[in-house]
Specification:
- Two copies of one chain form a homodimer.
- The first copy, chain A, has 690 residues and is an alpha+beta fold.
- Among the domains of chain A are: 155-291, Butyryl-CoA Dehydrogenase, subunit A, domain 2, CATH 2.40.110; 469-642, Up-down Bundle (Butyryl-CoA Dehydrogenase, subunit A, domain 3).
- In chain A, 51% of the residues lie in helices and 10% in strands.
- The first copy, chain A, contains 23 helices and 14 strands.
- The first copy, chain A, has helices spanning 29-37, 41-50, 64-80, 98-107, 113-133, 136-147, 290-299, 303-327, 347-379, 385-416, 418-422, 428-436, 445-462, 469-478, 513-535, 543-552, 554-578, 583-603, 605-610, 616-633, 637-642, 648-651, 659-677; strands spanning 153-156, 172-176, 181-185, 193-196, 205-214, 217-227, 239-243, 256-260, 263-266, 276-277, 283-284, 331-334, 340-342, 682-683.
- Chain A starts with 28 loop residues before the first helix and ends in a 7-residue tail after the last strand.
- Chains A and B meet through strand 6, strand 12, helix 9, helix 10 and helix 11 of A and strand 6, strand 12, helix 9, helix 10 and helix 11 of B.
- Strand 14 of chain A pairs parallel with strand 6 (217-227) of chain B, so a sheet runs across the interface.
- Chains A, B: It is found in: Peroxisome.
- Chains A, B: Residues 299-457 form the Acyl-CoA oxidase C-alpha1 domain.
């Protein structure tokens, strides 16, 4: 049924008044599409072409059992299309193309987020664990089979009792030198593995994370390859589990629980890249520090977070494409002329959709930066301890903001489409349900922001190394107005964003690009400095009191991390605008970037006022300028969502197919004919008195 | 399966440290439960008792077809329990108890929101249309059958092309005097009736809204009783339709589309309380003004909005009960002592849940006020044109805020429960999906807020009646700092809230109750005055320019309406606190009210700063005070959610059943035993160099 809603988008539709006057700047849509598709645009186009096949699309109304089987069979189609192995080495059928692999993977969200995430479980987590945490013997044994879906696998990290705090998981893997085996064991109910894709039905093996114990010492969390089901789909001896059942979304994935009762696997099943156990039980690792070893192993799996940032942004773009297209056709309530007003001509409707479009653009450009960093680290062109740490921080920061933004945007789009938005056929509610869990999996967003915040504090503290307390005090006081600190080393002041202020020709009371940049940067610096200043007392306190002090500042630290991520998005957007040659495109994207920047200022306006960064007059100008920018961008809204480059087969929502315009035209023609025929009923006369 | 998750809540659980010190004030939980259940508490308790039967509960994972049949059969159970007819007259089996009827109806959300809304379609819309818009002949013919579900019916108002703008619907009902019939007709696709519960499968009749045309004159929208299906469930001649299919939630309801091709119904099928057509085609109405007649008919159906306010608030309470209970048991990351920290001890977790609890309390008390107004109007104890208008405004204001709050709160609760929150068994994702459409049905929230805003402007303008423009100008200037206007006449300054300031003993830099009240009131007044001032120019403009001017001010008008609703909620909360005798309860609820008030100030802090209502110093104090209130209320969080009075059969979420505490205890005991046994693996030694 789904394909009945795919109709060609009316490219030859009569222009309605959402079109800008002919002398106004316009964006060059194909050029902007190229920009948005980014570094791996060709691969994204290939993926989108593949996804035009309805075999990949979600069917609404299936039971979760039917949906699971459909998605599982779709994984097979992906293998047939060679769509999933790009990240792996050539000798195992891959292309060693890390950025391209994720770019392609992210696009799957257009077909069905369940397909994206089930593919992510199989290849981004299970197969990647074998590749990233294992060594050649593991690759030779399992990699090709995992890539080709001969071994469907679960990634058994999370436990019922421990999600965010992976280091504290309860599952043990105790080495038994007499048989050269590891004994995988679940000691209590809270240590059951939980929420694992592929665990309830399809998985025949799992990469199981457990505390590695040998010679009476716990060497911390390591990963083991553990077969879990036989060829008939029955659990192997010692393995048990449960189905997690129906979820809030992503019901095409068979999430489930696993537990192990003294399950023995050969010593070789330890994925031993970062830690190994010799036959006699001796432990060795190339990374001496247990903490650094743990974070290195986790960091090897950062691609999940990276790809969620991209997929969430693509989902936001799709939702806005649907809502803006509908908002440009749907009419409600007669306007001054008697004709009904197009929704997107309402001030409130513009305020609901256009700023979210600006944020989605910012995220798209920021994501391409993230993907390039990821590719450089994993492709080896810039793989240092520092670049890995930067990548992890950036991924944590951007993933948090973009996944929350997706929920917010898809929901606003759904509400902006009214009752139509609530029908499954129009896609928005499905996207909303499926994307929901993106904000808490692969790292709970609040936990990720805390990680970013701590990194900011660490970078801040580095500036004081070797200084005595008096110097530090002077520094802390002095830097309030200064620019000595930028944040997480992701972009130093030296490498400031290109071409500031060239774009924004509409000068507004100190709210031009360079002012936006200064205000956003300043806020990050000040917030980090403020938290750091308050936390300095912690060193002199008891552990309990120090923890309480940190806790008191937790909300603000997370807010600082968010501010930092927003700044990075703004900078990426600004760089993208600067790289545009076409004057009309540059102009319009400049407005959109201004809208994003001003939106951030408005969101945090009370902070800017309380900290004396904006006068009342400038603060009042922020809201007014946003209103004007929305109005100025309104004629470009359709162009800007068309530039995402989705084909009708990707959009698939009947309300964005042109059907609404047909209905409006039919109704208007009916009333016009009626009037012309002279048979229209008269209007009731108003009574002379009330 | 659902009932396996129902376990007695651990009332005898050991106190953990969420319990306040013994000398601190505590709330009297049963007393607060009585307060929260409100005026019709006894009826709410009866409904909740009935809903302990698992026959009423939602089963996750059903197809929408199965779910629809289950809910339909549940409607039959409601009839058997005499749970649905209270609002109707005694002679038709009712009790003429309007407030009690809605109170009982709202509680259904605890069993399954689909059950609530399907019951709402049958009795709150379809049957109520017969009762409120019809006359004795209709009651005698159809009322008892509709009440007893012998006639399942659809409420056919909304069309594909017109939701918010009901006056513009396209369906026509043309009187044919020769046969004394109305011809119901759908002239074009956009005029199909759409999103109608009971239309896809179960409905055998519909109350159809159509433009009444007689003698060549259109008398506007009226309602007609139209049979649509025969005893075999087949559409009657001329009637057609479609299934709306799967939706984002509420899939226990068979929403569908209907269209009519010259369907003839007897003249008597016009529900003629507010407008009638004589046999010869002469139109008559007790309300001469077409506009007022239209709004009177619509206003007769206001109970939908009233009940959504209550149901959304109950759903928020349930979500907070689940998340706070879990947050008080779940531990993650080791704290200073080495033991893992309870989630609700984290500053951010407190900030996520406790302010939303404060808002939910405010809404609960405000809803009881709304319900009493509703009961007075519909029960006839205070049924005037003005009281009806007040009721409609208040319902629009409160429904908008509380339905949005429900989505926000349920989502925050779901995220606060992490991956567990995403499992259907834990209720939150189901509530979120089902409640989604509450924000756009029975009046799109933005459209409702605009209605409230226009009412505020109207009330404001009344003050200038008879004044000349010079006086008005002086007035507008003068009132900035004054208090001449309160807003929508819902509560005059004379009837100020009781007992201000007695409660808040913790004096904070001018942020006590009376300051909160002044600041909140002042903001409503100022915003309305500002918008009104800018709109005054409209009278001198062309229609187009006037519309553009209004459009420019739309966002701010909606914001003023929201501010007004927030003030009303604050006042209701304050009155409720004032009515409490018990000192400990009064103290704690006073803090919670302060948290609600301060939360509103924080949300609008930039406005207060820009308009000179708060100094920087006071503004900074707002956030700090909120932090302290969260910390102070943290030991009361469990009491406050327990006070909602839900039984395990209402909560049903395994994570809020005590199971998490059992798991935590088991894990802690395991590690304690291991340590005691002397067989615990040693910790890996840290390397001496990095």
């Amino acid at each position: 049924m789904a394909d009945t809603s795919v109709r060609p988008q009316a490219s030859d539709a009569e222009p309605t008044h959402e079109v800008a006057p002919s002398d106004a700047p316009r964006i060059d849509i194909p050029l902007v599409t190229d920009k948005l598709l980014g570094t791996w645009g060709d691969i994204r186009r290939t993926a989108r072409e593949m996804l035009k096949d309805s075999a990949f699309w979600r069917i609404d109304g299936q039971t979760h059992h039917e949906h699971r089987e459909r998605v599982y069979s779709q994984l097979g189609l992906l293998v047939q299309h060679n769509a999933i192995g790009r990240a792996f080495p050539v000798e195992y059928g891959g292309e060693n193309n890390n950025g391209g692999n994720l770019a392609s993977f992210e696009e799957l969200v257009l077909a069905d987020p369940s397909l994206q995430i089930k593919a992510g479980v199989q290849w981004g987590l299970f197969t990647s664990a074998i590749y990233q945490l294992g060594t050649k013997k593991h690759w030779d044994k399992w990699l090709k089979a995992a890539i080709e879906l001969e071994i469907p696998g679960a990634f058994a990290m999370t436990e019922t009792g421990h999600g965010s705090d992976v280091a504290a998981i309860g599952t043990t893997a105790t080495y038994a030198p007499e048989t050269e085996e590891f004994v995988i064991h679940t000691p209590f109910r809270g240590a059951w593995k939980d929420y694992l894709g592929n665990a309830a039905v399809h998985g025949t093996a799992a990469t199981v994370f457990a505390q590695l114990i040998t010679g009476g010492v716990n060497y911390g969390v390591h990963c083991f390859f553990v077969p879990i089901r036989d060829e008939n789909g029955e659990f192997l001896p010692g393995v048990g589990g449960e189905d997690d059942g129906v979820k809030g979304g992503l019901n095409g994935i068979d999430n489930g629980r696993l537990h192990f009762t003294e399950v023995r696997v050969p010593r070789e099943n330890l994925l031993n890249r970062y830690g190994d156990v010799a036959a006699d039980g001796t432990y060795s690792s190339p990374i001496a520090s247990p903490g650094r070893r743990f974070f290195t192993m986790l960091g090897a799996l950062v691609q999940g977070r990276v790809s969620l940032d991209g997929a969430a942004t693509t989902a936001s773009a799709l939702a806005l494409n649907i809502a803006v297209t509908y908002g440009n056709q749907r009419r409600q309530f007669a306007g001054a002329s008697g004709a009904e007003t197009v929704l997107l001509d309402y001030g409130k409707h513009q305020r609901r959709l256009i700023p979210r479009l600006a944020t989605t653009y910012a995220q798209t450009f920021a994501h391409d930066e993230l993907l390039r960093k990821f590719d450089a680290v994993f492709g080896g062109t810039n793989d240092t301890e520092e670049s890995r740490e930067d990548l992890e921080t950036l991924a944590a920061a951007l993933k948090s903001l973009s996944t929350w933004h997706a929920l917010d945007t898809v929901q606003e789009a759904r509400e902006a489409c009214g009752g139509s938005g609530f029908l499954a056929e129009n896609r928005l509610v499905g996207l909303r349900s499926d994307l929901d869990v993106y904000v808490t999996f692969e790292g709970d967003n609040n936990v990720l922001l805390q990680l970013v915040g701590k990194r900011l504090l660490g970078d801040y503290a580095k500036q004081f190394k070797g200084k005595d307390s008096k110097e530090i005090a002077a520094f802390v006081v002095g830097q309030t107005a200064g620019k000595v600190f930028h944040g997480a080393g992701l972009r130093q002041l030296g490498q400031a964003v290109a071409d500031l202020g060239q774009v924004a020709r509409s000068v507004e009371l100190g709210l031009r690009a360079k002012d936006q940049h200064e205000l956003l940067t300043d806020r990050v610096q000040q917030m980090v400095a403020d938290v750091a200043g308050r936390l300095r007392a912690a060193t002199k306190l008891s552990p309990d009191a120090a923890a309480a002090l940190f806790n008191e500042n937790q909300v603000e630290l997370l807010e600082a991390a968010r501010a930092h991520a927003e700044l990075l998005q703004w900078e990426a957007f600004t760089d993208a605008v600067a790289s545009v040659e076409d004057a009309g495109t540059k102009q319009v994207l400049g407005w959109l970037r201004d809208l994003f920047g001003l939106g951030l200022l408005e969101k945090h306006l009370s902070w800017y006022l309380m900290h004396g960064r904006l006068s009342n007059q400038r603060a009042i100008a922020v809201g007014r300028y946003i209103d004007r920018l929305c109005l100025r961008l309104r004629p470009h809204a359709q162009d800007l969502v068309d530039a995402f480059g989705f084909a009708p087969e990707h959009v698939r929502a009947p309300i964005a197919s042109g059907a609404e315009k047909e209905r409006q035209d039919e109704a208007a023609a009916y009333y016009a004919d009626l009037a012309a025929s002279g048979t229209a009923p008269a209007k009731e006369k108003k009574p002379s008195t009330r």
